[in-house]
Amino acid sequence: MGGLRSAEALRAGGFRGSITMLGAEPHLPYDRPPLTKQLLAGAWDEARIQLASAASLDERGIRLELGVPATSFDAATRTVVLEDGRSWHADAVVLATGAEPRWLPGTEGAAGVHVVRTIAQSIALRDALDALGGSGRVVVIGGGFIGSEVGSTAAAKGLAVTILEALEVPLGPVVGDLVGGWITELHRASGIEVRTGVSVAHVHARGPGALPAVQLASGERIEADVIVIGIGVQPATAWLADSGLSIDDGVVTDEALFAADSVAAVGDLARFRWHHAVGTDDVRIEHWEVTAQLASHAAASLLAGRRSASAVSLVPYFWSDQHGRKIQMLGRPAASDETLHVAGSVEEAKFVVVYHRGGRVTGVLGVASPRQVMLCRPHVESGAPIADAASLFA
Ligand SMILES: Cc1cc2nc3c(=O)[nH]c(=O)nc-3n(C[C@H](O)[C@H](O)[C@H](O)COP(=O)(O)OP(=O)(O)OC[C@H]3O[C@@H](n4cnc5c(N)ncnc54)[C@H](O)[C@@H]3O)c2cc1C
Question: Which fold has domain 103-231?
Fold first, then answer.
């Protein structure tokens, strides 16, 4: 998505030279959020999540080289080498290889054990869930957004779902303990068993006549028809090891998204310098909307040149769909920020919480409350006094 949006923005910004997109997957660029939602549910097919047709890319002179991963890059000469030995030199390069899901030791490729990052993985999980015919047990390891969405979609298929989470409060570091606790209650109200503070010692693959199983550190063994691992991702930087770029949990960029002269990084891969209302941080943000914004900014930076490029300015936004409710968040509050509950309740499965630090607004999260969340946008953007945001709901 970051690669495609960068190419499109370069064209929209007037770039007339040749553009080639190199991609490891055989598919045209596609949208990932539906992989745990509509595509996994079976409500949408593959065609619906395609982000651009071959014809429309061709019309804009964006050439595709798909199905072969890049294996190395030299930032000084801007040369990319592919696995099949071909190499590409360019005047400018956008790095947008995203992130890869983490597996637990020994689980990669194990029968009955899944992760969801690609279209192929989503379809494999959908087929495994649908093969259960509406009755069966799914264990999800990890209660983050991916695990929560998979759990919600599997529960809607009538399956018995257990989410195993190492933290005492799922999502606590991202949304705070109050909201993390409330989202956990939404799962439980929808029939999902959520077990917190549990540590997984081992995952057993499906064997002949044996279901896959999770072995907890306590010794307890939990069998399931399907096991899904959702314990987070790591930026896809292995191919950049000898690139000469600074790699530190992502490709490190400056405030204009340059990782080196004429080399920009965007999306889940990029750790960029971000000036915001209450400070400056080097951040890597795994959100769809942020990726789109970084891509258009990177294109503008490359077109302007490093000396004239401006700092990226954005208000982070993400959404998640669980149990028929939309969860939306603006800003990037720290886990230690204070929370102010301004509207709704967990009983109604509809509420709004505003985050603040030193009396200034750092974020807002709403469940089934899109209008109220967007109302707070200027307050999050400017780091307004918390009293001003609270007065919107008085
Ligand atoms: C299942 C799922 C659900 C999500 N839901 C939401 C949501 O509800 N809301 C939200 O805000 N965000 C959501 N996201 C996050 C959002 O989709 C990502 O932030 C976004 O896809 C990042 O785009 P990207 O281009 O940086 O990376 P990606 O979309 O991961 O694209 C990177 C591409 O690079 C390719 N690649 C990797 N290594 C190489 C290599 N060496 N050579 C060539 N190609 C390579 C990959 O195959 C991939 O096609 C979700 C993500 C996932 C996986």
Answer: FAD/NAD(P)-binding domain (3.50.50)
